[in-house]
Amino acid sequence: MSRPPSRPRMMCARVLLLLSVTGLVLACETGPSSGDYEQAVMQDRVQRDMQMREKESVLPPGRREAFRGLNFYEVDPAYRYTVPLRRFETPDTVMIPESTGDLRPQQRIGEVTVPLPEGPEELVVFRGEGDTPRGRLWIPFADSTNRHATYKGGRYVDLTSTDSDSVVVDFNRAYNPTCAYNPDFACPLPPPENRIAVPVAAGEKRPTFGG
């Protein structure tokens, strides 16, 4: 007759079973959440591309037929950060140069530090004054991908507030200013303090036009 397993062996078996189940649960929680995030970003990109093809888009009629679609870097969760927003005690309004040579008022409300793969970067956060939808928090930035891979005038990233005084800076959702598609539009240019020396290989690239 076989002897029943000893108590220590039974406890070890239960621990192993618990660890296995826990691992499966964690795998299920981690995998789909990452996949859901990527899918959400991709859906937003498809929607933006479709909007560009509409008759009411910012594309001038002469360029609409030549438009070949938006281009993006692959979605990389490493470029999505939840970071504290260090608010200035006294936000000030500055005049930011625009692509057309004019100036536009923007309120400097604070700064964030984003831990880019090449090292942390401090960026100034703005709130647009009377400029829909720039009334929300946003960061105009330039990086070393400009001109050869992304729009020469820099890009924008809108921030999402969290329950605490932190914000989500998601460069996978970085997008070109309107003047990248229609030079008649006046677009704020990234200020010197938001010019990043390293590449931000995430978000929207230069658009493609044929002809």
Automatic annotation (TrEMBL):
Entry-linked InterPro entries: DUF1684
PROSITE patterns reported in the protein's UniProt record: PROKAR_LIPOPROTEIN (PS51257)
Record keyword Repressor present: no
Record's keyword terms, sorted: Signal
Signal peptide: 1-27
Entry-linked Pfam families: DUF1684
Protein name: Lipoprotein
Protein source organism: Salinibacter ruber (strain DSM 13855 / M31)
